[in-house]
Amino acid sequence: MKSILQAKDLCKTFSNESVQQHVLKNLNFTMKQGDFTVIMGNSGSGKSTLLYALSGMERPTLGSISYQGEEITGYSNDKLAVFRRNHCGFVFQQNYLNHTMSVLDNIMVCGLLVSKDRKAVAERAKELLLQVGLSQEVFHKFPTQLSGGEAQRVAVVRGIINAPEILFADEPTGALNSQNTENVLNVFTELNEAGQSIVMVTHDMRSARRGNRVLYLKDGVITGELNLGAYETKDQLRHQKLRNFLQEMGW
Prior knowledge:
Layout: E1 3-16, E2 19-32, E3 36-40, H1 47-54, E4 62-67, E5 70-71, H2 77-87, E6 88-92, H3 103-111, H4 118-131, H5 148-160, E7 166-170, H6 178-193, E8 197-201, H7 205-208, E9 213-218, E10 221-227, H8 236-248
Parallel strand pairs: 3-8, 3-9, 6-7, 7-8
Antiparallel strand pairs: 1-2, 1-4, 4-5, 9-10
């Protein structure tokens, strides 16, 4: 598969008065189309900063980021916003749904940024909601009427309504209980099996083993990579491989 996303010599420094914090340090990253890449590491290792840099939400201090061979590092803020809108989807630990809007409207407001065909956007939103296991009864509910798992699945649909080439997820199951975590992870797996490229930051082993590869980040540098292959439910060795890898990395 061809490379879809690449970072070269990526550095990110935050300055606070006279103190500088080097969060990413000459980091190199390549992702192929259809990959489900998981980024792990201890708190403060730079996981979320890397995710935001790769998605164009955070500008790197040095280095370059290329999407399908075109460098986006020098894009203006407006051009970066268009890039994110047209090519990226986002799911965060908090669902950030608008509580004054229905489930369907929360999704459509994003879809209408790309397409002005309101009917087509509504049909796609409904189709995706059913695909992630939500019933028609949910369509016109408000976020406060949903369980945590239901709300996060709505957030996933919002993230993919515009058919993004890459879905970026930052601790998407961090606020969920065990069953809701499993439901959301199943959605991610189904999306990836259908060809969706995913980059996910997580600290949870159960979430991490859904990826086909795991990158370990330490002090702003990728110090290890584990290739797990496609996810299979009955793969008994997958969890142990991941555990051994993380132990080797000092997790």
